[in-house]
Amino acid sequence: MRKLNKALLCVLAPIYLVGCNSIATGKIGNGKKVIKLTTYNARESLKVSVKMYEAKHPDIDVQINEYLKDDVFREGDVEKYIQQTNTKMLAGNGPDILQFDHLSAENYANKNILANLTELMNEDKSFNKDNYHMNIINNSTLNGTLYAMPMWFFISTLVGDEEAIDKTKTNIDDKNWNWSKFIENGEALLDKNVHSTVIANMEPERMFNELAKDEYSKLVDPINKKADFQSDEFINLLNTVKSMYEKKVATNETAYIGDSYFINSLAISEEDFFLGPSSFYEHGKTYLKPQKSDEVGKISFTTGNEFGINKKSSVKKEAWDFLKFLMSEEVQKLEIGNGFTINKNVYEEKMKKIMEDSLTHPNGRTITVKNEDIERLNEIINRSSLHLTEDATVKEIMTEEFKAFFSGQKPAKEVARLIQNRVSIYLNE
After folding, report:
1. Which residues neighbour 143 within 8 Å (Cβ) at sequence distance 6 or greater?
2. Average pLDDT of the chain to the nearest whole number
3. Looking at the domain 154-300+388-427, which fold is it?
4. Domain ranges across the chain
5. pLDDT range class, residue 7, cuts 50, 70, 90
6. Can you spell out the DSSP letters for 183-249?
7. Whole-number Cα distances in Å, 189 to 234, 278, 314
8. Which of 96, 193, 222, 389 might form a disulfide with 313, Cβ 3.0–4.6 angstroms?
9. CA gap 11, 17 in Å, rounded
């Protein structure tokens, strides 16, 4: 009798019609399909994109569930947001789309609650891969499967004082250098004494994390819950960082802008790639970041503005179509300056405009971008294949144990063993 009454209520009472249908079919009372999107703090461009999409698809209602609605950041809010979203996702009541602003795609993928975006891409005949930087997308996978679609990406670089380096007559081959070669070049630069430091203002823990990020995908396998910190490669990484500081190639000492040969930098957009060096040096240049020996020639990148789809979503097809729209030219043009666009057509338009109009730095300097500069950036993007990711807890464990190694309290092998044990426990919690 209770089942019959509930069914009658769903049929007869309008107030119940919305609730019953939305649970079963993802629709609301007016027949529209609902796509629910969860984010910590919605960018204005996302809200505009939703309106644009709904105008093109009047049968779709995209509802943004924004945790931080008033733009007032409060202590503990991020943790509460993560906990609330985790609880809903694990209970099967999560949104259709998640923005991974503070959420971990790796953790959700590990629990098998995210849709396989690689399959959705490959099955969609209307998705033209030639329109996107597919090397970025394909290298943002976990064990070969894409769970988080990036709308932007950023390139790991060093900004160097080209004029000072030329004066030392030191040959810097940044296309083919590893960290050992960087140390060797650094010692040569210090001998010439044009600048007193190679990289300054760099705490040992921060340098360690920079190198460890490059190795993260080999050190941690969140899907299979495995860690590999007792390898010779990781022990060599520890010793490499220590060697940098012993040889004064890297230092935590304070140096003013322009007083060191290099500054660690992240190129955050096409414009920033060309403008960034002039923020630090009169004659600055963007250099590729060194890699470890077996990764020489590869370039590391990070991703941003990533979205994933709930595996249990009843509107998976519509959710994927909305993600495609976020990748489209008309939406990507709204995000100028926020990252390297994932859309190749928008990228090419930006390159054309940069060459035609030049760029003006906030300090007033005009930067003329030449065709060879564009070609260099094109090559860098095309060679970007090392996706840098990290887990906050794993990073905390590594940093804590590294301090004991760097201070001489514990040897490298002991620190590697401790990190291995602690991370393994964390991954299997």
Report:
1. 221, 223, 224
2. 87
3. D-Maltodextrin-Binding Protein; domain 2 (3.40.190)
4. 2-152+304-335, 154-300+388-427
5. very low
6. HHHHHHHHHHTSSSEEE-S--HHHHHHHHHHHHHHHHEETTTTEE--SSHHHHHHHHHHHHHHHTTS
7. 27, 21, 60
8. 96
9. 7
